[in-house]
Amino acid sequence: MLWQRAQEPHAHRWSLPGGALGDREDIEASIKRQLAEKVDVRQLSHVEQLSVFSAPDRVPGPRVVATAFLGLVPSDIDPEIPADTAWFPVDGLPETAFDHRSIIHKARHRLGSKLSYTNLGFALAPPDFTISALRELYSAALGYRVSATNLQRVLSRRGLLEPTGDTSPPGPTGGRPAALFRFSARGILVTDQFAVLRPPSGGRPAGAGATS
Amino acid sequence: MLWQRAQEPHAHRWSLPGGALGDREDIEASIKRQLAEKVDVRQLSHVEQLSVFSAPDRVPGPRVVATAFLGLVPSDIDPEIPADTAWFPVDGLPETAFDHRSIIHKARHRLGSKLSYTNLGFALAPPDFTISALRELYSAALGYRVSATNLQRVLSRRGLLEPTGDTSPPGPTGGRPAALFRFSARGILVTDQFAVLRPPSGGRPAGAGATS
DNA sequence: CGAGGTTTTCGCCTTTGGGTCGAAAACGTG
DNA sequence: CACGTTTTCGACCCAAAGGCGAAAACCTCG
């Protein structure tokens, strides 16, 4: 979501929401305060710090150091936004102000990574969803196709997926009705260990093989 | 590496090196400038941004927002440091100033994570090393024992380990001489895909099984 | 100089986890 | 009620990572 600047510098360019840090707030509170002027911040399902951008000339005029945040909204919510703001696909950005384009790309990269090794998907999905719908969400966020079979198995094995018991009616062209699921753990949750060099676990059970 | 504050606030407590951001520098340059007053910054093998700490009361007096960085030094280097500074093990910190203890713990966590899915080990190891030495480094940084067999295999498969051809002489109690290795890629390098939901690859080759 | 202790290295095995495919199930429609 | 559609499930596969234990290479001491 970007808003179009009315004044110089960079008038008419599209810009991320933001503003100055207040005396009695930390940066996350400030972000939410700034954002509240554009949308209902209660619709945000997840907010996390991204990175600091501090190049001396990143904006013209007096020095500005920016701390960027990544915020997510569930896919079933379409927030009301004011006239000077609009949603853009990450792959089709307009001309942006300052260094905001690189901030956005950094955010997209972070989202892709975290989808893989956390349950951050809960922040993108509605409370109940079908595997197909979740598959489309993940595909869009990651930028490549993921298989529904796999997605379900991976999330299930981690104990993150929970069937609601209900089914969603099939589309206009028929087809088997899809089972509905929800995420069982809401808060953000990191996979115990990431890729490699886990402490102890698998391998050959002690006292098994006696070769030759 | 901490230095002991001489003046209030928090006199005599131990503190991370740092200072105010200058007008014509970005934060990374500032960090290095501050740090240069304590050690030779050319010995740093890796520097990366950690996080911003912005609680309004994190330090007494005028508002201070801090951007914390993680810096690494190879294990074979023991930098000269001034009288008011000292090295501490992360598990045995003295009484620290402000919120520096939580900053340190965040840094340690980041280090552990990145060791798993990047080749960040190159920043901790000397140019040439034995697998045993590397194992000790990883164990210390991760906080749990890793097996030498496994470490070597994991790093080799990623193409990060390269034998020098030399061997290092055994210790005073004898033992087989250890082969020396070096990291083939110096710059930081992320594992192509992290844990799960890779694009396409493995699995059953097309047109193989014809069950029953 | 060989027996015995030590450290490293290597080969073989197991477990885990992610991937592919095809068939079966459950729907709508003509 | 045959047919196209979508979802779900089961069978199989491969790669990566962990665990031993044996073999290799070295030192020291009797």
TrEMBL record, chains A, B:
PROSITE patterns documented for this protein: NUDIX
Span of domain Nudix hydrolase: 1-111
Coiled-coil intervals, chain numbering: none
Pfam families: NUDIX, WHD_NrtR
PANTHER family xrefs: ADP-RIBOSE PYROPHOSPHATASE (PTHR43736), SLR1690 PROTEIN (PTHR43736:SF4)
Protein name: 8-oxo-dGTP diphosphatase
Organism listed in the record: Umezawaea tangerina
